[in-house]
Structure to design on (1156 residues):
């Protein structure tokens, strides 16, 4: 995102590994006038799968979105059995933020948006509590509160989905949203919901990871940003990082130190998605650099 | 360990937290002529326990080991209900190394010993395979091979314990020893067996952690050195560290990158023990710095 | 800072190293009813200097500030030639933020304040540009702009100092303030001005460190928070951290990745000061943990 | 290196950036029957230079070394003004180790060689002191001692160069060799001498970096592996890493902690070279991953 990328397109694709894919794709793009500015590929030799990300300047490129689809299918995708996505980078993605009571990730994301560090739109903030409404208002953003009980969950989530769709949301960020999201919402945004979990998954999945980390006596704590799937805290990991702790750190200190990690790891995960660097395959991510 | 510490003593103690412990202990030591060169204390407020490590120069100190015990018991330990250990740092610890087929940790430990980086004695190496006998011979060390099958395990371990005791072993290092150690051995060396596990515990306990890490798609891998208890890979953690990986790393690459971590994390854990910096309390370690 | 610390006092002291200091101080405090909750000491053996930080609960403590000074001087400080500071932790520190055009550190500090993560007061923000006035207003804080030219610098800084003094400022944070601060301001707030420099000092001191890092081809970049002294970028370092980069990272990417480091390293440095964990001695800091 | 790579070739190239390079090279390789197993490219947009590393299986590839050169020149290199190197990975590289008195890097490199972790040959060890001869002998390697004084330096280095050439040395490793290497040796092995410097360059270049780091009061120390050029400690950086220190660490502790970093950073730098992942351009390295 950001100015320099505004007139570029990014192709993400994968297919069974076979000699000649890179040559075929680069010849196809060059033939249509693309000036490639980034190409990264990866072969998973154990799985026999080829992955590629290519980014090129649209200036001088001879195909529009519809034209690209038709031409790429017949020239490449059919032959190589490729699965692909094309992104025109000019349009900023539209993100919805889901929060509960803790504000550190919310402030961090809002400041990246408001300062222009990220070229992104945030049409709305959704919460299950009123607590952070003042923060949304301070940044001039609509705040929608949907209180959730076991009885109302299905209905409230249906209203949330409707709201997300009305607002043309591309990406949902669970910024320390303390509710398990149900399959209906997940399936409405497949591989487009990013969560931050406050541990180095798979250690300490579930509730109260800092308490569990303290009880186990670990010497490092971590945070993990991942795409949300129906298996709790088990979706494809985008980014992780850790920080060192000692016996001196109480649970309260773990929470304090961990919050700085959470902000950073969530922001890096979202950034990778915004940059179209991520590709999910069998519950793992390729994160092109 | 090492030259400058040769004429020092280290006291490790813990007791129920109560005002006046530091004052009482430092007054006691000063009264017997100790010049304190390091004092570190920690209060676990959740548990209400006080921990302390004090190190002093023996030159001018008026108590020998037996004298210290009697005097410290009556002046301090009885009153404060303290549990304590005294170590005279002049005597190098005697370590036994347990290995199987992988040599990276063995080479690393032997080079620290042979170069004099660590002031320690290694009277013997024990293995369940013949593979690393040439490395032991190259470094001039006795190598004892005890092949282990389910049927022979109890008997072979009994012979190992006898050998360890004959050699006056203080500390057992499982340097990628690929056998589960039984309670009889653990109980013969309580809090004196250090293992290196090739994951950031508690994630990926048990066998084949690099395969599990690859399958889960984590973005960091780790290693953990810990005291061995009867619960597999669940003993008190001494040290952990991690390294970043990407989707490009095959299981083989994780193994390769992980081995450098294992060497480092095991060495740091052993060093902390040699320096008498570690104190175990309820399955967690205090590691004084 | 924060709730649990509100009724505590912290003593920072250093003196020539001599047996018996810890015993004397802890006996003194215990004698006046202090319940010590944290004690950390350090002996710099090369310099022969003893450093200590002690924190205790005021509940039941028998001395007020004036009483402490007199009693501590006669019982301890005179005898041991100690230099000391006493802090009553109940009073939140008052910080002034100096900024220019970049907002990332400002947002980060303001969100820590507004969310209550830090118990601190921010009476005003000072800048040499109008750029960030909207951010100050959004957070409801006074914003004072002092445009600075070589001709006006002395006069403008004098007005800034007056404003800081009127507002009872304890601590000045240069949150990417792109002006060299003159000795008159430094001397008005000795060891009470914290700067963030966007490199791992002493590498790349001065202007444009990211450009210099890119030109040198380093594989890690860093950030440093330090107390400001008259030597540019050469004051006592409080905290540093680094992040890995590759040949793929343009100067623009270094700036983007570095800004996250700057926020974190500045926040950690300020936090250590707020917690009274820092002690400066001969251009180096002791940062008690 | 290692088994799986034995029947592969690696091409490293760079040229002025121009559309169509990737397509041309991959078409050329595919046309000669190459099965590409790794392709990584990078465009330095500021310099306008294109860099690429391609690795393919030799099984089924129709060109031998001489044939490749002629064909690649006429089909690609002439047209794109490319600078290139081709490496057949079957042949293990031959490394000479230069050491002085410190053994930690030497042990580490020798254990990687002897254990088979690295598929490499070490025909000899060269030193300016006799100190480490026993280590060489223990590993069964020739050890040549060339005492160096200002008067004998030119002559002794000439003998060293002759010895290196007689032994068909591909790569020289300065494993804490405490002598400045003169231009005649550097020019005999351009971009084929790797040094480990015990600081995070460019900070603390030159002698006694741990003393300088301690005096400056930094909170992290580092190590840097780099290609040696005529400018002392200023050659292209291959790898760097850091470790956190505190005020408690004496110069001796920095040395101890730093040695572990040095081993790791040197090994990673050498590994990258062995894997043909490094390409030097204008005093910076591209390290393909």
């Amino acid at each position: 995102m950001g100015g320099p990328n505004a007139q570029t397109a990014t192709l993400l694709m994968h297919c069974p590994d076979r000699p000649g894919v890179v040559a075929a794709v680069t010849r196809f793009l060059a033939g249509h006038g693309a000036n490639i500015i980034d190409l990264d590929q990866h072969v998973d030799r154990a799985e026999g799968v080829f992955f590629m990300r290519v980014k090129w300047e649209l200036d001088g490129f001879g195909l529009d979105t519809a034209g690209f689809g038709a031409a790429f299918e017949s020239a490449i995708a059919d032959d190589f059995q490729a699965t692909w996505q094309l992104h025109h980078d000019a349009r900023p993605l539209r993100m919805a933020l889901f929060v509960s009571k803790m504000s550190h990730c919310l402030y961090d994301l809002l400041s990246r948006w408001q300062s222009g560090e990220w070229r992104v739109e945030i049409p709305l903030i959704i919460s299950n509590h009123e607590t952070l409404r003042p923060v949304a208002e301070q940044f001039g953003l609509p705040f929608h509160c949907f209180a959730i009980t076991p009885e109302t969950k299905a209905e409230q989530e249906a209203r949330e989905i409707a709201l997300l769709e009305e607002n043309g949301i591309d990406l949902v960020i669970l910024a320390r949203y303390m509710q398990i999201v149900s399959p209906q919402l997940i399936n409405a945004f497949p591989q487009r919901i990013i969560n931050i979990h406050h541990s180095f998954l798979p250690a300490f999945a579930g509730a109260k990871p800092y308490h569990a980390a303290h009880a186990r006596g670990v010497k490092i704590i971590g945070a993990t940003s991942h795409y949300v799937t129906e298996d709790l805290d088990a979706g494809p990991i985008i980014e992780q990082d850790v920080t060192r702790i000692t016996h001196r750190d109480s649970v309260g200190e773990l929470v304090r130190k961990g919050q700085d990690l959470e902000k950073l790891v969530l922001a890096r995960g979202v950034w990778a998605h915004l940059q179209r660097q991520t590709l999910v395959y069998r519950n793992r991510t390729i994160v092109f650099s």
About this structure: Residues 1-5 of chain D have pLDDT under 50 and may be disordered. Residues 110 and 132 of chain D are 12 Å apart (CA to CA). Chain D has two domains: 3-88, 93-287.
